[in-house]
Amino acid sequence: MNMKKINRGLWSLALGLVIAGAFGISGCSIDDSVNQSPNGISSDKIKSRDGMLGVLVALQSVSGDFYSGDRSRVNSIWSWQMAGTGQGRQQPVGWNSYVMDVDGPTNDNWLNGYRGVKLANDILTIAPTVNFGGDNDKARATIMGIAEVYKAVIFGELAATYGSIPIEIDGFTPALFVSQSQAYDEVQRLLTSALSRFDNATTIQQDLNFQGDGAKWKAVIHSLKARYFLHVKKYAEALNEVGNGIADPTGNLMAIYTDNPNEVSPWGHWTGNEGEPIKVEKTYMDLLKSEVGDKRLDEYFNKNADGNYLGFAAHGEAGATADEMNPDKVSGLKKYSQFADDFPFITYEENVLIRAECEARVGALPNAVTAVNVIRTEAGLPDFASTDKDAAITEILKQKDLQLFLEGQAYTDQRRTGTTAEQNVPKRWIYPSSEKNANPNTPADNDALVNVLVGP
Fold first, then answer.
1. What does DSSP assign to residue 432?
2. Is residue 66 exposed (0-12), middle (13-18) or buried (19+ Cβ within 10 Å)?
3. Residue 20's closest CA among 253, 258, 274?
4. pTM metric for this prediction
5. Using CA atoms, how far apart are residues 232 and 160, in angstroms rounded to an integer?
6. How far apart are CA 270 and CA 368, in angstroms?
7. Per residue in 78-130, pLDDT tens?
8. What pLDDT, in 10s, does the model give residues 234-279?
């Protein structure tokens, strides 16, 4: 990783624009002198309590856009939850056929991820030198713990998306890429370190989710550890974590958005400002309609002008009607479609579904069925019953696909379990131009996992 591509304009972006907007979200007061000149911020101001709190808000904002932006859009299309329609802009239509160019979403996603890593690293490097006042040790531990969590999520999702990634960055020196397995090991190390820090937590108003509540952060960490163990098929290890994971929806970790121009959600922007060029795919809509009474149908989508829920037949599905091939007749997005709609990093429901799958895989089928029925009940569906392990896992993965709508985990699950909608779905993203141009260590995109049609 060559940080020249990341550092250029980072402080201007993150501390000049992102922080200025995100302070409005948190309602907190920060010393104005921290941000008097975004292009020439005093290092003394950054190396202060206010400076660290400002970087913390920027980290949350950048991480949220990374998780819910291009990563969510492309993965939703490659998992056949959504499809490009050609309305508003043409680019997403190519994603239906797995076209990806090195200067598009793969580049933006990579840069957003490593901007977050840069901000997290700044906190982890600078915070030990800062005097945080009366709650000095606790404030430092809390801020550093939060930074490690977001860094772990970014590395986990970058590893899931690209495979081999850099995890050690030393100034402008082109970084080495480690294996996907090593990247996941680093994710677990970061989460373990963060877990210990929250033994000494204190109130931090600039923590946009939990205001420094150590118990809630610990639960999030256990759920994240379970997710990333699941990614690498360590089912017993994942099961060991979920018992201490998120216990109810009040513990969900969210990316926070508002109606203010610099604080709108990525999906809200594309729905409200871009002409809704991505709509629900027929395959996903049919799955959601497969059981009568599923509450998620109305939660996720708007009926079309004829009063129907319809998905777009982007892949030539057999039996598609004329209306299902007409983007104007396809249901519009409701969930996450507004500027101020928060977006989940990880939730109680995901924790339940991880438990369900892992219980099934280790042979505790009754426990698996009980867990998946928590989700079915929430969706307004009758209980599932089966004594067949494979049938239970199929049902659990179906409910996870439906429940974690747009969260990007369906793409990872489908690759892991060999259940992609068709064989030629790419198994990873290509590396972006920014990294290829700056870092000679960037791997070639010639492995068997890459099946994209490289665009211009």
1. P
2. buried
3. 258
4. 0.91
5. 10
6. 37
7. 999 999 999 988 999 999 999 999 999 999 999 999 999 999 999 999 999 99
8. 999 999 999 999 999 999 999 999 999 889 999 999 999 998 999 9
Q: Do 158 and 120 form a contact (C-beta atoms < 8 A)?
A: no
Q: How many residues does the chain have?
A: 456
Q: Identify the helix (H) or strand (E) that includes residue 83.
A: strand 82-84
Helices and strands, counts by H and E, the chain: 20, 6
The answer to whether 202 and 142 are in contact (CB under 8 A) is yes
**CA 367, 373, 374: angle at the middle one, nearest 5?**
95
Supply 284's token pair.
Answer: 């996903």
Q: Find all residues with CB under 8 Å of 66, minimum gap 6, and list them.
A: 109, 112, 113, 115, 116, 154, 157
User: What does the CA dihedral 200, 202, 208, 209 come to, rounded to 10 degrees?
Assistant: 60
Pairing of strands 343-346, 253-255: antiparallel
Structurally, at CATH architecture level, domain 4-212 sits in Alpha Horseshoe (1.25)
Residue with tokens 């210990």: 196
Domain boundaries, the chain: 4-212
Q: Are the beta carbons of 343 and 255 closer than 8 angstroms? A: yes
Q: 452: exposed, middle or buried (C-beta count within 10 Å: 0-12, 13-18, 19+)?
A: buried
